[in-house]
């Protein structure tokens, strides 16, 4: 995995992130995004910080 992919992503105030199995949804004041994530990628949402692991 690249170094930039190892960096945690901070979730700003007013943005909601939900993770269900292989689907990640992000909702904010500018709209909504939903994407499928490869099953081998593990997304962790802890204290408004997203981390990705393989």
What is the highest CATH level, the class? Alpha Beta
Query: How many strands, which pairing sense, and closed or not: the largest β-sheet?
Result: 3 strands, antiparallel
Q: Please mark out the parts with pLDDT under 50 across 5 or more consecutive residues, or reply none.
A: none
Please estimate the helix content: under 10%
Strand content: over 45%
Rg on CA atoms, Å: 11 Å
Number of domains: 1
- Looking at the overall shape, the CATH architecture is Alpha-Beta Complex
Overall pLDDT confidence: 89
Number of helices: 1
* Straight-line N-to-C gap: 8 Å
- Would you give the CATH topology? Outer Surface Protein A, domain 3
CATH homologous superfamily designation: Ribosomal protein L6
Order of the strands making up the biggest sheet: 1-6-5
The class by helix and strand makeup works out as mainly beta
**What gross morphology would you assign?**
globular
Please name the defining characteristics of this protein.
single chain, 54 residues, mainly beta, Outer Surface Protein A, domain 3, 3-stranded antiparallel sheet, globular
Description:
The mean pLDDT is 89. The strands form 2 sheets. Strands 1-6-5 form a 3-stranded antiparallel β-sheet, with no helix packed on it. The longest helix is centred in the N-terminal third of the chain and has 4 residues, at 3-6. It has 1 helix and 6 strands; from the N terminus they run αββββββ. The chain has a single domain, classed as Ribosomal protein L6 (Outer Surface Protein A, domain 3), CATH 3.90.930. With 54 residues, the protein is mainly beta.
